[in-house]
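Good morning C.,

I know you're traveling, so I'll keep this short. The sequence:
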Amino acid sequence: MNIFNLGGPGAASQESERATGPALCSRKGCRAGAQWQLLWNNPRIHTPDRRKVWLSCGDHRDWLEDYLQTRGLWKETVPFTASQEAANGAG
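The tokens, ready to paste straight into the viewer:
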């Protein structure tokens, strides 16, 4: 869970849908399929090698990167592939 999809009507059903459906963009309200992985960590609470992942569509990549970079959390952005989506759905 992240700050982009907290609360609101149907939040619980959206979370369960995201867990079983296709990988979607992490931007609040976006239903587009993921194309990018934004890798980040919070150095105040994570070890340096830990990487958290937000998924992004092409339209929201810049917005999400800027959000993380402004807070000093962004590490790198890499493409999200179909094989990763299959692994995400299997877990």
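Safe travels,
E.
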